[in-house]
Every structure is written in C-alpha cells, then in structure tokens.
Specification:
Blueprint (H helix, E strand, L loop, with lengths): L8 H22 L8 H13 L1 H11 L3 H22 L4 H42 L9 H40 L10 H13 L9 E7 L2 H8 L1 H18 L6 E6 L2 E6 L4 H17 L5 E7 L7 H17 L5 E3 L2
Parallel strand pairs: 4-5
Antiparallel strand pairs: 1-3, 1-4, 2-3
Helix pairs in contact: 1-2, 1-3, 1-5, 1-6, 3-4, 4-5, 5-6, 8-9, 9-10
C-alpha cells in the first residue's frame, strides 16, 4: 500500500529563507573569489547553486514520498556547499563565517544540536574537497567591498529566519489553542464535555466566593432515547442529541451559562447569577421547546447551590436525584431538589 506523502509545510517554510540566504551568500563569496582562471568553474558552480538550487531543492521535496527527509538531505547539501565555497575563497574569515553561520542556523532550526553537528561534518568535508581540488591559499585580507558584500547576509538572513520562526510560533500557538478546545469539547454536539465540566465545577468550589451562591445546576435526560436508537438507528439517535443540544444553546445566556454533554443521553447545565424563579423559567423553556419541535422530551432535575453541599459531587447528586424524580413522575418535567 502506498504511503501518503508527508506534509510539505517544512519545505515551504525553508524555501524563502534559502532563496534569500543563497542570493545574499552569492555576494559574500563572489566578492572574495580569487581572480585566477581556476575560479571560473567555481563561479559557474556558485551561480548555479545560489540561484537554481533553492528551486530544485523544493521540487525534490515536492515529488518525494517523504518531503521532510528530502529537506534534511538538501540541508546537508547546503552545509557541504558552504564548506566547499569557504575553501574556494581560501577560508577568508568574514565571508566564510557568514556563509557557514547561515547554514548552521538552518541546521539547528531543522534538527537541533545533533543535526547541526551532522551539518558541520558536511561543511568540513566540503572544505577539505575544495582545499584538495583547488589548493586556494589561505586569505585573511578584508577589503571594504568584502565587508559591504557580507553585511546584507549577516543582517537580512537572520531576520528572514526569525520571521519564519515567528510564523511557526504563531501557528503552533493556534494549533495548541485548537487542541485545547477540542479536548474540552464533545465531538458530537459541540458542547463542553464532561472532563471540562468537572474542571469548571472543581474550580468553582475552590473559589466559592465567585458567585456559587447564586448558581443552579441541572441534569437533563433525553426521554426514550434508547427506543430511538433501537427503532431508528444510531444516526437518528445522534441527530436527536444534536437537536437537543441546539435547543439548550438557544435557551441559556451566552457567555454566562455552561451547557455540557454529561454522557450518553444526559446533559448538564450551569446557570450562573440566577434565582430559582429565573432558573425555572430557563429550564421550562428548554423542556417546552423540545416538546414543541418534536424532539424527544426532557426530564430535568435541578439543584440550587447549597453551602452544605460540600463538593461538586454532592451538588450533582442532588440534581441527579431530582432528575430521577422527574422521570418517575411521568417524564417531561422540571423538578427542583428539595
């Protein structure tokens, strides 16, 4: 079975910095190339590498079944080339450091210290090859033109790489937020899930001065849900639950109350800053809307906060007992705990 290609996100992320870095690196190396005839093949290789290789590297990753691995190999090519061209200019300190630092930053961003060391080995191999093939003498001269040619690389390339890192950080933060939301959301109804509900209640009891005294909780059971599943199938059952969730959302006050799926065909509501009369009005509206719209009817058990509840579990137990009283009393009712 053919494996799905890996994401090209990483290759796209490094494509622009590579284009910018190699264009600026061309100036740094070109300004220090010796004027001997042997430099002409090196210049041709430099032009091809700096202006064609970024696009070829991206194309290789694009057609690869494993773009991430292809990108890692391309970065090792970059490291080898940086070492080679540093050797071709006689290891002139400033331009050599500029181009080697460029690829080292890339390698660190790609795979951390371990991959950076691999890149360093590739650069050393490239430098050794240049020294053996070209025998360019060591050159420590530094003219104004060389400094001017290296400055754009030393300034602009780190900025481009920093911008990429900034974009990556924003994307990761957005994904983290989405994952956090997903972990707290019921996938079927889009309501708060039970784990998140438990956290909300526990936090409320840990900070009892935040208004719990004016809160009401309600456990809501969908009447006859098992019969819907048995008669019409689970898809119909799922749609029934989604319909009930929509009704509950429409009845509560957005941003103030919490609606959650408690489990199976049971829902949970936290009504904040309400008295018993207002809570009854909201819950009765839920019950009536479900009946009017042909949804399964609702048996609702409610419990106002009591200082002697002691814990969220005991408070929920009060609402749960009231809900079962509603079911025993004929269903389709709202019952408050005594």
């Amino acid at each position: 079975m053919q494996r799905a290609p890996q994401s090209l996100v990483l290759s796209r992320r490094f494509y622009l910095p590579r284009c910018i870095g190699l264009s600026l690196g061309f100036l740094a190396v070109f300004s220090s190339l010796p004027g001997s005839p042997s430099s002409r093949p090196v210049l041709a290789a430099l032009v091809g590498y700096c202006f064609a290789w970024p696009h070829l590297a991206y194309l290789i990753a694009k057609v690869s079944a494993r773009p991430v691995d292809a990108e890692r190999r391309s970065m090792l090519v970059d490291a080898f080339a940086a070492g080679f061209f540093a050797g071709a200019i006689g290891f002139n300190p400033i331009p050599s450091v500029a181009i080697l630092v460029m690829v080292t930053m890339n390698n660190m961003a790609m795979g951390g210290p371990r991959f950076m060391l691999s890149g360093g080995a590739a650069s050393a191999l490239g430098g050794a090859l240049a020294w053996l093939a070209l025998a360019t003498p060591f050159d420590d001269s530094l003219g104004k033109s060389q400094v001017a040619a290296c400055l754009p690389l030393l300034v602009l390339y780190p900025l481009s790489l920093g911008y990429v890192a900034y974009q990556t950080a924003i994307k990761l933060a957005r994904q983290k937020k989405q994952l956090s939301l997903m972990s707290r959301t019921d996938h079927l109804t889009g309501l708060t899930n039970r784990a998140a509900l438990n956290d909300i209640l526990d936090e409320a009891f840990c900070a009892a001065d935040t208004g719990l005294a004016n809160s009401v909780i309600a456990l809501i059971d969908v009447d006859g849900f098992k019969q819907i599943n048995d008669t019409h199938g689970h898809i119909a059952g799922d749609r029934a639950l989604q319909g009930v969730a929509e009704i509950m959302r429409a009845c509560v006050r957005g941003g103030q109350d919490t609606v959650a799926r408690y489990g199976g065909d049971e829902f949970f509501v936290i009504l904040r800053d309400v008295d018993r009369l207002e809570a009854t009005r909201i819950l009765e509206r839920m019950r009536a809307l479900a009946q009017q719209r042909g949804r399964p009817t609702l048996s609702i058990g409610a419990a106002a906060y009591r200082p002697d509840a002691g814990s969220a579990a005991k408070w929920i137990h009060l609402a749960d007992a009231a809900m079962y009283e509603a079911k025993r009393g004929g269903r389709n009712k709202v019952v408050f705990a005594a």
